[in-house]
Amino acid sequence: MQFADRLNNVETSAIRELFKLLGKPGIISFAGGFPDSAMFDVEGIREASNAALTEEPGAALQYGATEGYNPLREQLAAFMASKGVKGLDANGLIVTTGSQQALDLIAKTLLNPNDVALVEGPTFLATIQCFRLYGPHVVGVPIDTKGDAHGVQVDKLEDMLVQHKPKLVYLIPTFGNPSGATLSLERRLRVLELAVKYKTVVVEDDPYGDLYFGDAPPPSLLALSDQVPGSREWLIYCGSLSKVLSPGLRVGWMIAPPALLARATMCKQFSDAHTSTFAQAVAAQYLKAGRMPATLAHVRSVYAERAQAMSDALKRELGDALTFTQPQGGLFFWAKLTGAGGKLKDGSELAKRAIEKGVAFVPGTPFFASNPDTTAIRLSFATADVAKINEGIARLGQALS
Questions:
Q1: Residue among 340, 335, 317 nearest 377 (CA)
Q2: DSSP per residue over 110-153, as a string?
Q3: 133 phi and psi angles, rounded to 5 deg
Q4: What's the half-sphere exposure (Cβ side, CA atoms, 13 Å) at 75?
Q5: Which residues contact 231 (CB under 8 A, 6 or more apart)?
Q6: Spatial CA neighbour of 347 closest among 323, 373, 369, 310
Q7: Segment holding 400, helix H or strand E
């Protein structure tokens, strides 16, 4: 059987391959990027499901518009307004099957073979794979992950805009995956200025922005776009309910200039006709009921406790053999092996040894589109309680010794 040439541009996810090794009984996993299912607001989702089937059962169970279920689009526009986004109404966004589909639609509508797409180095692995499927050159831009971890280095970004003339720039400005870095307010404004100056599309992926542990992070690029004239027309925003409500609902959304939104809607129609109308109706009822603030407060509290527990355990068990910046939100630690005391410095090799000790994490190399850092590793604290975190990091220390 002869397959499409585009498949030569991608390979199976290293993370997915790692998951095949996780069937070992008793293993503690820090590998996944999942929210903790124990914190899903099951009662709230049940009530929202009942409301969807009571108030508009026909609409909830029927085919729907490709752009999305209008009551949900209205709720999402209001949700974004509560986060400082001005001038957005239901017609300014489309609902997607998770934000992952939004990334695919962006790639379909913008990227040609041999175009250049700039991404953070490191960045979300699935984005690298998704973009490469359409044939562009995906190039990493360095980010700051130490100290205050202010995110993408905007001076390097400008140099690469001049050098590569990319079709788009993809960023996770807030609590990045895998880096945990958050772009500073000053750098956010500079990114918007660069988008206008070089007439380059900037994609803002924001699945983690609501998962902060202390002070709220800077406003999104989208919310700040009013301060940089002309930047809104070069900006695409991808949002998701997966990390804060339920990934099983598969509800995401995309905000973009009208011409791009129309083409993305056309491509979505060819792909899946529309996102599950029932899932959209449930999400709309949930947001309408006003339960999201309490849900977010609970999730933030639990994840903050787990992040602190992991930080303490890493310092206790690995000492100077590992460096990291304390995350201020999101789901991840991004750490680097130092080789102190002659210990291992290769993240991929440590991942293999760790599995043998009954603990799993993801090595950092696959998260780079170019120039990978072999010393880096990603650890998620989201799905393990404090006791498992302490035990898992102890095992990791044993694997490193």
A1: 335
A2: H--TT-EEEEEES--HHHHHHHHTT-PEEEEEEEE-STT--EE-
A3: -60, -25
A4: 22
A5: 192, 193, 195, 196, 221, 225
A6: 373
A7: helix 386-400
Q: Which two tokens stand for residue 142?
A: 């360095």
With a CB cutoff of 8 Å and minimum separation 6, the contacts of 396 are 317, 318, 354, 357, 359, 361
Identify residue 145 by its one-letter amino acid code: T
Question: Do 220 and 67 touch, CB atoms closer than 8 A?
Answer: no
| Ranges of H-type helices in 41-134 | 42-55, 57-61, 70-81, 98-110, 125-132
DSSP letter assigned to residue 39: G
Tokens representing 45 are 């989702």
Closest alpha carbon to 401 in 358, 350, 334, 326: 350
DSSP assignment letter at 329: B
Strand partners, 332: 380
* C-alpha distances out from residue 97 to 206, 240, 256, 271, 277, Å: 15, 9, 16, 11, 11
Position 104, amino acid: D
Question: Helix, strand, coil: what percent of the chain each, to 5?
Answer: 50, 15, 35
**Other Cβ atoms closer than 10 A to 305:** 15
Overall size of the chain counted in residues: 401
Alpha helices for 241-346 (secondary structure H): 258-272, 277-289, 292-318
Contact 183, 206 (CB under 8 A): no
Which residues 6+ apart lie within 8 Å of 387 measured at CB? none
Q: What is the pLDDT along the chain (401 residues), one digit of tens a residue?
A: 988 888 877 766 556 655 555 556 789 999 988 899 999 999 999 999 999 999 999 999 999 999 999 999 999 999 999 999 999 999 999 999 999 999 999 999 999 999 999 999 999 999 999 999 999 999 999 998 776 668 999 999 999 999 999 999 999 999 999 999 999 999 999 999 999 999 999 999 999 999 999 999 999 999 999 999 999 999 999 999 999 999 999 999 999 999 999 999 999 999 999 999 999 999 999 999 999 999 999 999 999 999 999 999 999 999 999 999 899 999 999 999 999 988 999 999 999 999 999 999 999 999 999 999 999 999 999 999 999 999 999 999 999 98
Distance CA 232, CA 222 (A): 7
